[in-house]
Amino acid sequence: MSVVDRLGQLRVFAKVVERGSLSRAARDLAVTQPTVSKALSALEASLSTRLLLRSTRRVTVTDAGRRYYLRCREVVERLEEADAELADDREPRGTLRLHGPTVLGEMFLAPIAVAFQRRYPQVRCDLTCLDSFVDLVAEGADLAIRLGQVSDPSLVRRRLGTMERLLVAAPRYLKARGAPRTPAALAEHANVRFSGLPWGNSLTLTSPRGPVSVELQPGFVSNNAVALRHALVGGLGVGLVTRWLVDQELKRGQLVRVLPQSPPPPLEVNAVFPSARFIPTRARLYVEFLIESLRGKPGMSV
To answer: Does the domain formed by 3-76 have CATH 3.40.1710.10?
Structure first.
């Protein structure tokens, strides 16, 4: 077997392990599924070892396959790093696989990705909008944009900036219930908030005396930011939102700020990468492009 054949087989094997599927690996590598299957079979035959258990629905890595992957992945990464260094002198190319929150993706990441691809026509953007965190390695993603602090030590983080957050409510809600004058008074009001928050109904605000925590009453809960905006405009309570989400509603008077003297702390915006050892040129360029594109957006500080 030639060195070229083995390197190709290692690339295929590593991609199948990471994607968990022959069809996904074939798509990423721009080859057919039979080609992927043939390369895997040839690799296993040369090693006299079963690396993967394959069925019609899933691929399972054997213990031997898992150990072999950890070794061969280093070889593949070194090769990709060498390829990327040469590509730095040329126009970036390939598929940019990007993940981001749903509404942020719809409002900002999508049009920015379109502009980025127009600037670099050899790059094809693959944008996935999800509000849940995914395994970047398993999904074959180049990077993800995440809101809030990044606590996973396995990820490489680049801080992009912060988003201003504020409490808002509809004028008709405040007319009916009265506007809260202190953070403690929020406990008497219905709260419009995201579902699944780790801190539940608790809210932390800033004040001249330091952070203040208040336990709120859930009034309307959703996992979608646009749904929360509808609930706030519809007068269902007081809610914590980013300024960019409700900037137009504030300008039109459909929403007003609540307790502006005690604002919530801003929200971090981060780009995260699955590995520090190999960050594709297209991903690095996209982050720089994103920072410039977000500059000046409502409530954004980059």
So the answer is: no
Ranges of each domain in the chain:
3-76, 94-161+268-301, 165-258
Kindly report, residue by residue over 221-258, the tens digit of the pLDDT.
Answer: 998 889 999 999 999 999 999 999 999 999 999 999 99
Q: Are 206 and 263 in contact (CB under 8 A)?
A: yes
Fold of 165-258: D-Maltodextrin-Binding Protein; domain 2 (3.40.190)
Integer angstrom CA distances of residue 70 from 66, 200, 270 = 6, 39, 28
Sequence letter at residue 23? S
For residue 84, name the pLDDT band (cuts at 50, 70, 90).
Answer: low
Q: Which residues pair with 203 in a beta bridge?
A: 214
CA 90/CA 192 separation, integer angstroms: 49
Q: How far apart are CA 97 and CA 27, in angstroms?
A: 13
The architecture in CATH of the region 94-161+268-301 reads 3-Layer(aba) Sandwich (3.40)
Q: Report the candidate in 258, 254, 263 with the shortest Cα–Cα distance to residue 170.
A: 254
